Amino acid sequence: MSTLRQQLADMQKQLDLSVQASKATLIIEKCGVVLSKTDTVAGHYSRLKYQYPALQRLPPELRVTWNENQRNELKNAANSVNNLLSQWSRWLKNQTLAGAAISTENPDPQLDEDTTTKEPTAYDIIQNDSLTNCMNLSLGLYRTLSGQLNNAWEEWQQELRQQIHVDNKTLEAQQKVGKLKEIADEYSNLRNKFDALVKSLPENGESITQIRSMAEHLNTLRGMMKTDWPLAVQHFFDRINGPQSGKPTLSTLTTEVFEWLRDEDMLEDFVITRK
C-alpha cells in the first residue's frame, strides 16, 4: 500500500510539474509579445534620440521645432510608458516571488494568473489598454517627428544638390582635357562619397559638418570646370581623344581653337608631329 501511495504521490508531483511547465510556457509566450512590441518602439526612439539633435545643425529655417501639441503628445506617451512599466514591474515581482516559493518546497506554487489577486498579470498587460495605448501613442509621435526630420533632411539635400550638380555631358567633356580630367575625376569620386553619406539621416553633428564641407568643395570643383566650349573646340578635342586614324591635322587648329587654347594656357599641352 505504501508503494502505491508513493506512486500516486509521484504521479501527482509529475502532474503538478506538467501544469507549472504549461503555465511557464504561456508566460514566456506572453512576455515575448510584450518584448516584441516594446523593442520595436525602443529601436525607433534610440535612433531618434541622436537624429533630432544632429539635425539641429541644419540652417535655422529648416530646423525641426516641437509645437505645443507635440509636447503634450510626448507627455502622454511618457505617461503611458510609465504606466506600462509600473504594471510590468509589479507582475515581474510576483513571478519572482512565485519562483522563490517553488524553491522553498511550496506544495502548491502559483506561477501566474491567480484570480484572487488584484495585481496585473501577463495576460492583463497584453489584453488591457496599457500596452495598446503605450504603443499607439509612442508610434504615433515617432511617425510625426520622424516625418518632420525626413522632410527637413530632404529639403536640405535638394538645396545642396542644386549647388553641386554637374550633368553627365559636362563631366564627359572634362575628360577630353588632361587638367580638366583630374578635376572631373576628383569631383566624381567625392560626389559618390557625398551621395553615400546623405542616404540616411545622420546621428551626429559631425556628419552634418562633413556633408556641408563636401558640398562646398564639390561646388568649387564645379566652378573650375569648362561648360562654355565653342563647337570648334569640342570638335578638336573629340578628334584628339578619338582613334589614331582620326587624329586632328593642323587644318583643325583654326584661329578660334588656337585662341581658346592660348586663353586657357593650354598651348604647351600639345606637340606637332608628322603623319
**Number of E-state strands:** 0
Spans of at least 5 consecutive residues whose pLDDT stays below 50 are: 105-117
Radius of gyration: 36 Å
Could you spell the SSE succession in H and E letters?
HHHHHHHHH
Largest sheet: none
The total number of structural domains is: 3
Helix content bin: over 70%
Mean pLDDT: 78
SS summary, helix count: 9
Q: End-to-end distance, in Å?
A: 121 Å
Coarse structural class:
mainly alpha
Shape: elongated
* DSSP strand content: under 5%
Could you describe the 3D structure shown?
- With 275 residues, this protein is mostly helical.
- It folds into three domains: 2-149; 165-226; 228-275, no CATH class.
- It has helices spanning 2-54, 68-103, 122-127, 129-164, 168-174, 178-197, 205-224, 231-240, 255-263.
- The chain is elongated and about 115 Å long.
- The N and C termini lie far apart (121 Å).
Tell me briefly what this model is.
With 275 residues, this protein is mainly α. It is built from nine helices and no strands.
Q: What brief labels describe this structure?
A:
0% strand, mainly alpha, 3 domains, 275 residues, 9 helices
Helices and strands, with pairings:
Blueprint: H1 2-54, H2 68-103, H3 122-127, H4 129-164, H5 168-174, H6 178-197, H7 205-224, H8 231-240, H9 255-263
Helix pairs in contact: 1-4, 2-4, 4-7, 6-7
